[in-house]
Amino acid sequence: MNHTMLAAIAESAQTPLALRHIPSPSPAKGRVLVKVHAAGVNPLDVKIAAGAAAHARQALPAVLGLDLAGTVVESGEAVNDFSPGDEVFGMAGGIGGAQGAMAEYIAVDARLLALKPRTSDMREAAALPLAFITAWEGLVDRANVRAGQRVLVHGGAGGVGHVAVQLAKAQGADVYATGSADSLDFIRSLGATAIDYQLESPDDYIERHTAGEGFDIVYDTVGGSTLDASFKAVKAYSGHVVSCLGWGRHSLAPLSFKGATYSGVFTLMPLLTGKGRGHHGAILRAAAALVDAGRLKIRVDRHPYQLHEVNEAFRQVEEGRGKGKTVISMPADRSAAPQ
């Protein structure tokens, strides 16, 4: 293997990422060396590059990128679950001082990985980890979603939202999802009842779809005033609100007067603290099983960005122009060069 590799580096906040040759990593105990084939671009990656994500604890300069799919090249000591040649995926770096996925190689804690879905290509697999883990931690770990429940997903066409819709459906729930007018057909294609939040108030859709009772689970993937609307939309006593963007200041009175419950989801914790990493691997194994069973499909933007187009890919995410998850493919050889 080469002793250097090509990587996209955020050298300082609010400046374009630079392609640089840097030393290749080696797998320490409990880690595997992965040749990266594809890296997902998340809004969090864009925020880190802008210097606007202190909670991610990623000081610059740094190689960014949380999500990856690739092939195991070498296993470190005490790794028994993966062998060279295995195709894997995971949310494995790019925060907390760890090298990210936007490089030819990455050394990853093996607990954070799972075997790639057999029916997915590398780009699809790289688009899945953060979105699926976030959806699973909210719906399954926190809210215990199950058959017969009415589940409302706010932002049902978004990155986490469209995965949450499919996961709730796979668990047997009756799923509803909010979106703007141009996203309603996509939401319906996922098997959910689509709600145009610009035309219907919470009172309207609560009455229309639950006869005024409220939803058993409400998953907020939008934050802000949408979380307040979630407190209003949830069922009394047994209802559960989950949010992956519950970072603002909100009145809990509407929730408290209903006797309902709330859970926050902070998917980065295992990467930042080292605790619970094995659970992330288990969640991804469940994701792969759902994909291979035809019950989960990740929406990937069709533009085939290459590593030398990393700044264009970041701009697409920042401006919200992508139709699905933006994914960057790694160079197959050293012919790639900055443009």
List keywords for this structure.
alpha/beta, Quinone Oxidoreductase, Chain A, domain 1, 29% helix, globular
Please, how many helices?
11
Number of domains: 2
Determine the CATH superfamily of the largest domain.
Answer: Medium-chain alcohol dehydrogenases, catalytic domain
Low-pLDDT residue intervals, each spanning 5 or more residues: 333-339
Shape: globular
Strand content: 15-25%
- Care to count the β-strands? 16
Question: Could you tell me the radius of gyration in angstroms?
Answer: 20 Å
Structural classification:
alpha/beta
- Supply the CATH architecture of the largest domain: Alpha-Beta Complex
Order of helices and strands: EEEHEEEEEHHEHEHEHEHEHEHHEHE
Largest sheet: 7 strands, mixed
Give the topology.
Blueprint: E1 4-10, E2 18-23, E3 31-41, H1 43-49, E4 62-63, E5 67-75, E6 87-91, E7 105-109, E8 113-115, H2 122-127, H3 129-142, E9 150-154, H4 159-170, E10 174-179, H5 184-189, E11 193-196, H6 202-210, E12 217-220, H7 225-233, E13 240-243, H8 253-256, E14 261-264, H9 269-273, H10 277-292, E15 305-306, H11 310-319, E16 326-329
Parallel strand pairs: 9-10, 9-12, 10-11, 12-13, 13-14, 15-16
Antiparallel strand pairs: 1-2, 1-4, 3-5, 3-7, 3-16, 5-6, 6-8
Helix pairs in contact: 1-11, 3-4, 3-10
Structure overview:
This is Zinc-dependent alcohol dehydrogenase family protein. The chain is globular. It has eleven helices and 16 strands. The chain has 339 residues and is of the alpha/beta class. The protein is 29% helix and 24% strand. 50% of the residues are buried. It folds into two domains: 4-128 and 277-329, Medium-chain alcohol dehydrogenases, catalytic domain (Quinone Oxidoreductase, Chain A, domain 1, Alpha-Beta Complex); 131-264, 3-Layer(aba) Sandwich (Rossmann fold), CATH 3.40.50. The longest helix is centred in the C-terminal third of the chain and has 16 residues, at 277-292. Strands 3, 5, 6, 7, 8, 15 and 16 form a seven-stranded mixed beta sheet that branches. A six-stranded parallel beta sheet has the order 11-10-9-12-13-14, sandwiched between helices. A three-stranded antiparallel beta sheet has the order 2-1-4, with no helix packed on it. The chain has helices at residues 43-49, 122-127, 129-142, 159-170, 184-189, 202-210, 225-233, 253-256, 269-273, 277-292, 310-319; strands at 4-10, 18-23, 31-41, 62-63, 67-75, 87-91, 105-109, 113-115, 150-154, 174-179, 193-196, 217-220, 240-243, 261-264, 305-306, 326-329.
